[in-house]
Design a protein that fits this description.
The structure is a homodimer. Chain A is globular, with a radius of gyration of 23 Å. Chain A has 2 domains: about 300 residues, Alpha-Beta Barrel (TIM Barrel), CATH 3.20.20.540; about 60 residues, no CATH class. Helices cover about 45% and strands about 10% of the residues of chain A. By secondary structure, chain A is α/β, with parallel strands linked by helices. The interface between A and B is large, with 111 and 111 residues.
């Protein structure tokens, strides 16, 4: 980023949305256009409509901006961060490097427990991708307990994180007091961490959600640093039985109202989505968000399409994520095999990121994004030519593909052969097919 | 199976289809009805229409029959079998036990190389699930080369396998000489093993496909032992670029004609499907098969929805398989992580079977199959109650779920705790949510 001048704070709204509405193309927009191979004017127009967001805090100096929205390729986000029980800055930094190397487009630091600010600073210093947080985690850590949290402390944390350079923040501003009784009917209740903390606070204080009550205060902070708001779905379903219920959709309605307030205030905004959703309800969920939230980019978590596969939720959720992206979701929050069971290890992060690279790419291909299928075709051509090195190089995980191929062979000579151990030399379809092609 | 009498050969057509057309309910149909919790009369009517098949060779004495079709739950098939390069009867028997334990509904023995008949006998002796084969593999093994194969030898192998008790056979009878020029245009050509062998044979001999030319001879054999024909898609696409092309659909049209001939001859029949298909073309592919093949059960391989993830094709294909099953496929042929790279190990078989149990279950839930969601709800309830043992027990892979949970904990006491290391005790959403539920 050579051109930072248009991201400096000058005392008034200087968000990408502000510029776009005025018809200006910023350096940030130009970079997104370059990455997406579309025109900068299209980027600007989409940002102006609010259908595209570019989380780019003016203080995140090493940022290489990413666009998130229906006009660009689907993105994936990797959640990292330690919990009170496990992990520290070093381990999280390794996860950061790993997920960026594997192609993650955005990263959220979900650290809870001590050392939150320190881990976040370390990650920001090393993260060219947009970095997101859930500020209520730090606020509660500093308050000591959920109940001791005050609105002022929460806003202090938000302001400090914004000044530090956080690009997007999940705020559960649409979870209202009046939604809680609906959620009590559920099989799994409130499974969003931020959502359950917010509900606990509201019940204890018998007060409305402070982020909702003082939403304009939040908007002022976001406008100052160009923090993109990610409106959290505190009432996202935590099991198939709770999907698409009254409480989920009551909150979504509120999120739609908040989207309109963000846009009026020149604050970039996206909306977060479920969760656990049966496969047949995914399209409907995507359409409802588009309708109720005026096409704000939808940032979905999975959804997992069955509850019965703990240990494999990167798969259950990649299925849902592909369907969601196909029907309009703009960013997919990855899920690892260890979801529901524990904090992911580096190996889990790898599995999760690859599963989501598959989901977002499959959706981009299915939506006929220009050039999306080029890599598939190149790899398939290499496959037909037995150019194994090229096959591995074009793979999402070259190391694993190469390893699996090598360990399946009985001799070193086999590795370069024009067949693999799956069929053996005599029954290799590709080999036979090449002969058929060559025949008259 | 206490009641075998209605499966004995008495010199005339005694297939399940024959009985169903006459309005008879057989012991086999009753068993399928019991497993599916539907009436035996419905099973009979669906079999009579050809929308449901029950592969049940009269000589597979230890068979516990399974129904495959749109009226019953979605099934998965596991391919096992050695290749010339690797594996023998012992290793394949271990894979058989593993895939049956994990819930595979059908098994195909795809052994090539020596010991085909011996491995098949071993598997049949230990397999209560319907067992399928691709007879051309044995025929070519016995002929020595593809070119030396004769029609008589192929039919001899089919007859011997039928007598041995094979329940369903993949025959590439719909791949015609005139289709080959179309397939030459493809990026990856003919990637079906049986398809490429058949094409090679036709080109060499300058003759039509003998299975097509002598299809009535094939029907006579199948009728005698109640072998269900699985009409192979020799021209299934092997990469996204080749999907839904002229050659694929030319063969599918022919398969539709063969379906009608099977039914007229009282032979049960299903149709095999792709392969590699972009996500947006899957629904169309399912609908076309239903239309052109008069709703014959569609048995699909994946499809994988991107070519760029070798090493993870159990995931790329589980995504496509879920979509396919949702839109009407009746059986899903599993794909392992080692697809395209080598012969699967036991660990690969495990990964593949679980991925497909996820896909078929997710589709059954999405199609609102009665009772399909019960296990999800039970597991989610256990999850909300921190009944970890119950969570593991209801999981598709209890061993892995338990292991991942245990290794994520710092102390033994933690394992039974009402939180997990993902959030730690203070931020556990489930725990907080339970308190919210309990509050007034």
């Amino acid at each position: 980023m050579g051109e930072q001048q248009d991201r400096e704070w000058t005392g008034e709204a200087m968000t990408q949305l502000f510029h776009a509405k005025k018809g200006e193309v910023t350096a940030v927009m130009r970079r997104v256009a370059e990455r997406e191979k579309i025109s900068a004017e299209l980027v600007r127009d989409e940002v102006a409509l609010g259908r595209l967001v570019i989380p780019a805090n003016i203080n995140h100096k090493n940022l290489d901006p990413q666009g998130i929205g229906s006009a660009v390729t689907c993105k994936i986000n990797t959640n990292i961060g330690g919990s009170a029980v496990r992990s520290g800055a070093d381990e999280e930094l390794k996860k950061l490097e790993l997920c960026l190397n594997l192609g993650s487009d955005a990263v959220m630091d979900l650290t809870v427990g001590p050392h939150i600010a320190e881990i976040r600073q370390t990650l920001l210093d090393h993260c060219p991708a947009p970095l997101g947080t859930v500020p209520i985690y730090e606020a509660i850590e500093r308050a000591g307990t959920c109940e001791a949290l005050t609105a002022d402390l929460l806003f202090t944390c938000i302001e400090e994180q914004a000044r530090q350079g956080v690009d997007f923040m999940t705020v559960h501003a649409g979870l209202l007091r009046e939604h809680i009784p609906m959620a009590k009917e559920r099989l799994c209740g409130i499974v969003s961490r931020g959502g359950s903390l917010t509900a606990t606070w509201m019940l204890h204080h018998q007060r409305q959600n402070p982020l909702f009550e003082e939403f304009d205060r939040l908007l002022d902070l976001c406008r100052q640093y160009d923090v993109t708001l990610s409106l959290g779905d505190g009432l996202r379903p935590g099991c198939l039985a709770d999907a698409s219920d009254a409480s989920q959709f009551a909150e979504l309605k509120t999120l739609g109202d908040l989207v309109r307030r963000c846009r009026a205030a020149d604050v970039q905004v996206m909306v977060e989505g479920p969760g656990h959703v049966p496969f047949d309800q995914i399209e409907m969920n995507m359409k409802k968000e588009q309708e109720w939230c005026d096409e704000a980019p939808f940032y979905i978590l999975g959804p997992v399409v069955t509850d019965i596969a703990p240990g494999y939720d990167h798969i259950t959720s990649a299925i849902g994520a592909t369907m969601g992206a196909f029907h309009g979701a703009s960013m997919l929050c990855y899920v690892t095999p260890r979801e529901h069971l524990g904090l992911p290890t580096q190996q889990d992060v790898r599995q999760g990121v690859i599963a989501y690279k598959i989901a977002d790419h499959a959706a981009d291909v299915a939506k006929h994004r220009p050039g999306a299928r080029e890599r598939d075709d190149a790899l398939s051509k290499a496959r037909a030519n037995f150019d194994w090195d090229q096959v591995f190089e074009l793979s999402l995980d070259p190391h694993r593909a190469r390893m699996m191929h090598e360990e399946s062979h009985v001799s070193k000579d086999d590795i370069k052969a024009d067949y693999c151990s799956m069929c053996g030399p005599k029954y290799c379809a590709m080999k036979l097919s090449n002969a058929v092609k060559a025949a008259k």
